[in-house]
């Protein structure tokens, strides 16, 4: 019961408006139900004495430690603060020391991770006295993993802990990092260095004590035991890995849902997500709480794409909300949602039934651009030494968080006259699940452009570069769209062009690397068949010449271009058609355009001078699966997808771009494509636009922002290979 002194204290607390009821109840879930309607009474009678926080910024223990006069007087810390301390700017919480201040640098990690087991465990051990607890938990879990441990303080205690870990777990990798971002920055430091790249899943742990919670130790134990259950971790881990639509595994009760959990983190979370072209709504939120969970590689790739470093994180001051680390915790939920991935709790994982398996493609192709070497024509039209890289590197961002310029990573600014580059590209593509490159072939009535890469390839029989050709039969124009502007190289279709083109292709058809996806016929694609004066006659002429010259039948395809040509083509003229997003999916009348008559609806501001078109990548992904859309395509169409689209490098403020593209959404598109479109796709194939269209940001190659994120997404999204025999 409250005595008169308690009642005066209660009156003071309520009058101050400094007691945060929601925070207090959320931070102390074990408060008895009798007190949940009157949490101030709980605080007065027992909470303050137990050291519980009445709001995120006041620690009773820290207040007494830093204000000796209050401690000696025997006054209640929060009562003193309300009466006098807040007016005297007294210290109200712990300010943990940091190893390095803002502006300092952290040495990059060298070499690779341990990479001996298929999964990894990462522990951030701020409280070094908890090592024994984690060691015992990991041993009892009984599964194989590589162990990484990060510590935060340099000194005798750190060295003693390092020695203990080395004795208990000799294979562990132990690092000392600054106390910034608590457990989040150390984890990202390992991730950004590539040490966690090759694991099927990563378990993230840290030594929580949560002094602002009444049940801090109990909570930590619940979190760790929940995702490392004794005797069944290995079984549940395999179930987690097998669930394609699951991204995170947390302990029971740690999947928080509801907008009330935003706290003071919404705006910071929005800023974080904008780096990945994602959004957050104030009305909805679900996320993995507690920062202890299993993560799939799709989530890790997105975290790496944030490119967060030491200086991005707040200086540690004992904050309980509002830091970058708190915002990132909530952003994980938005990342999962963007990828169509679930956050599963342990009991849900135990009860999870295997989902029906998705079909996997029989054959995967990607459009390939050879425009990465200088030619005399481009020198004359655009300036000496011009290549695709010239436009790519000078691209400028058109709005906040516009990821331009988009720059290459692993392969650098390559020159395709060096066939070694093509060997490296093919190795990357093969590892990600691509069977062949569909290489653009620039032929203008016998004149060739950009032919050096593929012609030099024919001279290098040892380079394993599987390819087939696509005749890019559009005129080259000053504005890059093939539709308007000054003509630089005209596609005139002179009499006899079809036979001349067909004959010129024979040396490529005869190369052993030239693809015959059906096992017998070389494949050839025409980009814009409706531009040919008489498409049926041209195709018949080509086929007749190939038969006469001993090639036999050719598997002939055409691209479904977004603009109708002057000469309509019968669907059955070609063996197959190729869907090529965004062509044909996005139109000026679509309600998911961000610009146009409806005004700007972008999640970020767009300046008035921008006159291009911005559309929603995620809506395009969804529309590609719509039966109404797919039903309009020819029956023998290869289903297509795209990693991204943004031609700012070519068109500047008049660019067309898909906002919202990132690796996890691309992976989701692939999974859904396998479910909804692949069963009806020609020969069970998938076409990707594109491998290396850097000036249109339709790219799978490693990039400065996402590293190999798109290649990883492709490998996972395609599923297991199907035997064509």
Note poorly predicted spans.
96-104, 595-600
Number of strands: 24
Biggest sheet overview: 8 strands, parallel, barrel
Strand content: 5-15%
Number of domains: 3
Average pLDDT for all residues: 90
Oligomer: single chain
CATH architecture of the largest domain: Alpha-Beta Barrel
Number of helices: 27
Gap between N and C termini, in Å? Answer: 81 Å
- Rg (CA only): 30 Å
Give the structural class.
alpha/beta
The rough form would be described as elongated
CATH topology of the largest domain, what is it called?
A: TIM Barrel
Strand line-up of the largest beta sheet: 10-11-13-16-17-18-20-22
Helix content: 25-40%
The first-level CATH class of the largest domain is given as Alpha Beta
Keywords: Plasmid, Transferase
Pfam families: Glyco_tran_WbsX, RgpF
Organism: Tritonibacter mobilis F1926
InterPro entries: RgpF, WbsX
What's the structural blueprint in terms of helices and strands?
Elements: H1 4-16, H2 21-27, H3 39-47, H4 60-66, H5 68-73, H6 77-83, E1 119-124, H7 131-141, E2 146-151, H8 156-168, E3 173-176, H9 184-192, E4 201-206, H10 216-227, H11 233-242, E5 246-250, E6 255-257, H12 266-274, E7 286-288, E8 293-295, H13 297-305, H14 324-338, E9 342-345, H15 346-351, E10 363-368, H16 376-382, H17 388-394, H18 419-432, E11 436-444, E12 447-449, H19 452-458, E13 467-471, E14 476-477, E15 487-489, H20 497-504, H21 506-509, E16 523-526, H22 535-548, E17 555-559, E18 576-578, E19 613-616, H23 617-624, H24 627-630, E20 637-641, H25 648-651, E21 656-659, H26 663-676, E22 685-688, E23 692-693, E24 698-699, H27 709-718
């Amino acid at each position: 019961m409250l005595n008169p002194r308690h009642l005066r204290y209660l009156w003071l607390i309520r009058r101050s408006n400094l007691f945060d009821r929601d925070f207090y109840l959320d931070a102390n879930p074990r408060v008895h139900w009798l007190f949940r309607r009157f949490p101030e009474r709980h605080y007065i009678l027992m909470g303050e004495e137990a050291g519980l926080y009445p709001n995120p910024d006041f620690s009773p223990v820290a207040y007494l430690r830093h204000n000796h006069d209050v401690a000696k007087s025997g006054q209640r810390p929060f009562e003193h603060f309300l009466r006098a301390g807040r007016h005297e700017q007294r210290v109200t919480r712990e300010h943990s020391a940091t190893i390095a201040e803002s502006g300092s640098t952290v040495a990059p990690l060298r070499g690779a991770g341990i990479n001996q087991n298929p999964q990894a465990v990462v522990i951030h051990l701020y409280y070094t006295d908890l090592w024994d607890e984690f060691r015992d938990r990991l041993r009892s879990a009984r599964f194989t993993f590589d162990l990484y441990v990060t510590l935060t303080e340099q000194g005798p205690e750190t060295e003693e802990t390092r020695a203990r870990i080395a004795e208990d777990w000799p294979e562990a990798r132990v690092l000392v990092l600054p106390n910034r971002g608590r457990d989040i920055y150390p984890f990202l430091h390992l991730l950004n260095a590539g040490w966690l790249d090759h694991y099927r899943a990563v378990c993230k742990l840290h030594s929580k004590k949560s002094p602002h919670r009444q049940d801090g130790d109990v909570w930590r134990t619940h979190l760790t035991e929940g995702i490392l259950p004794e005797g069944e971790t290995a079984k549940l881990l395999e179930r987690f890995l097998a669930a394609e639509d699951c991204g995170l595994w947390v302990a029971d009760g740690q999947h928080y849902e509801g907008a009330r959990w935003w706290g003071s983190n919404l705006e910071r979370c929005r800023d974080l997500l904008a780096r990945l072209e994602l959004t957050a709504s104030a009305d909805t939120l679900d996320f993995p709480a507690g920062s202890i969970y299993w993560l799939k590689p799709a989530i890790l790739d997105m975290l790496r794409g944030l490119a967060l470093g030491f200086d991005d994180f707040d200086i540690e001051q004992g904050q309980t909300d509002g830091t970058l680390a708190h915002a990132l915790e909530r952003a994980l939920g938005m990342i999962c949602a963007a990828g169509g991935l679930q956050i599963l709790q342990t009991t849900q994982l135990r009860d999870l039934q295997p989902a029906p398996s998705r079909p996997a493609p029989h054959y995967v192709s990607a459009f390939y651009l050879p425009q990465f070497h200088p030619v005399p024509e481009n020198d004359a039209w655009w300036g000496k030494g011009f290549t695709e890289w010239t436009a790519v590197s000078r691209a400028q961002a058109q709005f906040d968080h516009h990821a331009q310029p988009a720059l290459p990573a692993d392969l650098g600014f390559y020159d395709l006259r060096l066939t070694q580059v093509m060997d490296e590209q093919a190795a990357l593509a093969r590892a990600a699940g691509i069977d062949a490159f569909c290489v653009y072939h620039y032929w203008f009535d016998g004149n060739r452009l950009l032919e050096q890469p593929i012609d030099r390839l024919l001279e290098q029989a040892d380079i394993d570069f599987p390819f087939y050709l696509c005749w890019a039969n559009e005129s080259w124009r000053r504005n890059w769209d093939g539709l308007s502007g000054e003509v630089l190289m005209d596609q005139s279709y002179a009499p006899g062009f079809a036979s001349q083109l067909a004959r010129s292709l024979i040396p490529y058809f005869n190369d052993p690397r030239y693809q015959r996806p059906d096992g017998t016929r070389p494949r050839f694609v025409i980009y814009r068949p409706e531009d040919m004066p008489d498409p049926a006659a041209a195709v018949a002429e080509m086929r007749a010449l190939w038969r006469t010259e001993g090639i036999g039948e050719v598997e002939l395809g055409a691209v479904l271009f977004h603009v109708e040509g002057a000469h309509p083509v019968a669907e059955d003229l070609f063996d197959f058609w190729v869907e090529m997003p965004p062509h044909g999916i996005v139109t000026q009348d679509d309600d998911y355009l961000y610009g146009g008559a409806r005004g700007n609806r972008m999640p970020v501001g767009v300046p008035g001078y921008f006159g291009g078109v911005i559309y929603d990548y995620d809506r395009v992904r969804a529309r590609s699966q719509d039966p109404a859309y797919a039903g309009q395509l020819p029956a023998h169409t290869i289903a297509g997808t795209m990693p991204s689209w943004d031609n700012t490098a070519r068109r500047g403020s008049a660019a067309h771009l898909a906002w919202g593209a990132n690796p996890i959404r691309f992976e989701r598109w692939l999974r859904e494509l396998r479910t909804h479109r692949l069963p009806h796709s020609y020969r069970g194939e998938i076409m990707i636009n594109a491998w290396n269209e850097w000036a249109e940001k339709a790219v799978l190659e490693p990039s400065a922002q996402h590293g190999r994120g798109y290649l990883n997404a492709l490998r996972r999204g395609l599923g297991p290979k199907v035997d064509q025999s």
